[in-house]
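Deliverable D4.2, example record:
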Amino acid sequence: MINSNVPLPYAIEYAKSARSTCKKCRKTISMGALRMSVNHQASFFDGNIDSWFHYPCFWLKLIKGQDEINISSIRGVDWLQWEDQEDLREQIKKFKEPYVYVPRTSSINALSLSEMKAERSATNRGKCTKCSINFIKGEIKVNHKSKAFHFKCHLEDFDNVTETLEQIRGWADFDDCWKVNATNDLAAFIESKKSANAPQQPDNDAGTAVNVEEALETCAINSNSQSQVPPTTKSEDDQQIEPVKTVSFDDQPSSSSGKKRVAIDEIVKLDEDGSSEESDFNRKRRLGKEARLAEVQKRRLKRQADNLLQNYKLFSDMSSSDRLAILSENNQDLPEGHDQSTQVLERLSDYAVYGCPIDCQKCPNGKIVYNSSRRTYVCTGYATEYSKCAFESKNPIRTPFIMPKRMYTKYDMKGIVFNVLSERIYLEGEEEEIVRSNKRQSKGGVFDNQFFYAAEQMDALQRGSGTASSSDAASNTHIIKNGTLVDAKFSLASQCHVFKNETDGSLYQATLSFTDLTQNKNSYYKMQLLKNDHSDNYYLFRSWGRVGTEVGDSMFERFHKEAAINEFQKMFHEKTSNEWVYRKHFRKIAGKFNYVETDYSEIAELGDQDVIPGSKTLLPKSVKEVVMSIFDVENMKSALKSFEMDINKMPLGRLSRNQINQAFAVLNDVSELLTEMPINTGKLLDASNKFYTIIPHNFGMKVPEPIDSFHKVKASFKTIESFIKTF
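Output generated by the structure prediction step:
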């Protein structure tokens, strides 16, 4: 699976603080409360974030028939209390249950309270459409067909009501006094309908939903109970007599002298086609055995969950330094990425219960850790500079967990036993296909980071396929200063130029890229060291995001000259693990950005622009932006980067000849891999990551596709050949 490391669409956990807010009810989620999230693409970096909900609010947010969810699509289930795990499975089962809608026998106009749109009246000024009386602030106001009604007035338009008041959306947000009024109004409405009409069975109400599984189960119970009653004969006065004995083939005695009977489970009834049919007795016995095994499995899972949570609480009470010391004692690495504290707690809890997995045998630098999203153990290391290690195992080889002796005197560990289980237990039957939530559309798109010629912009507007808004113009405009290209997203771009090394004349600017198909990563990171034209102020401007989209952000800092140079070099080393002064001998490091060599030699020949476009016009701002978009000479020539470059093909700038030669070498390697049998998919994936990192591509929000066929290799060769024509 190419995108096996892509985050799951949902997550569940106990809130670590009281800082988060429910996205549905807008109320604070208290610390320790059970909460669930929807995972979606972040707008300010190339990654994903969680939008959290109260546990009950989350299920109100999901829409039956539209949203999908299963246990395999939820991260963090393993770290819940067993009771909460069972409740989660029950909630999923209820959400996925099919319903049969029983039609009404008569045309009764029924009000469904769960579908009714109700809200608190924000003021005292609104009037009810029916009675023309003003709403009281805080009162329940019903919105129906763009009109507002009192709850009591709205009831008068219906013959019946289904469901309960608690199922009204937002019922919990209403004040108690209005809840009481609504309860009284509903009771009066029901009483009036009873007196006006003949009594009806409540089960015949319109819109009653019948659970299919419950109905089938009831039928099965009734049929079983009837089949277990022996046939009887009744006299005329209905007095029961002895049951009539029925003789079957199974009851015939054996002809042997010992009168030995054949075992019941050995008697097999054959159908006409000769196939065997399981008897009711055997089926019940088998199902009973399966039920007992399932019960044993649940007890084992509960014990496992209790042990994990017990250790999790123990390590939560420890100081951060002590937790790191225990990791070091067991020869385990500090987790990388965000939320390191939670990762440390989860790993220590896992090690304490089962033992510590040995180092990965497939890569030189990997540690084996449990991945709650994939419900298996994976390697944290990299197989190559461009790809993560693909090792995974349900239960890897382990060594005993070691708790330092000094911790026993420092913390209360009474009743805690380490290395209590030899392997992790998994609930069978939960390996379902991961669903994808209905995420919002990102701001990215076909035209997001492209530079257009003026005529192409007008064509796009006429087709309705793109926009030329001021925000787009600002983000896609660059300014030429001192033969350098300054990103116009920097607020002081018109007053600055890219600083040059006083020794060799090289520019302090860097374009970095990182692509990993398994994580759906296609990231860029840009840095420019800018000098003010009129002062000794220096600015380090940085921007980052996803290639070809508007996902990302930027920032700048002001320094003196030496501090600015040091900060630029420090940031370059932090992102690439390479020294800036040795960038000509750049070596890609696993998990770090790659340095993209760009060539703006033709820009240097243009020199400075004497007048900044639009700086002296007296036209209104809106008119000025349209005129500048149409008559921007630099846009028409080169989109302010290079004269013949297609930004959709080179979204991060014009690539150097050396960069393109590296890409040719990678495609040649891919061609050789495709001729081998069997095809090594791991090496193909690594080569694809390498190619897309060297030659950044605009995939939008889609997962980058691996280069796994000769057709794709040929298309990539044509793309690179078109780059060479620009030189």
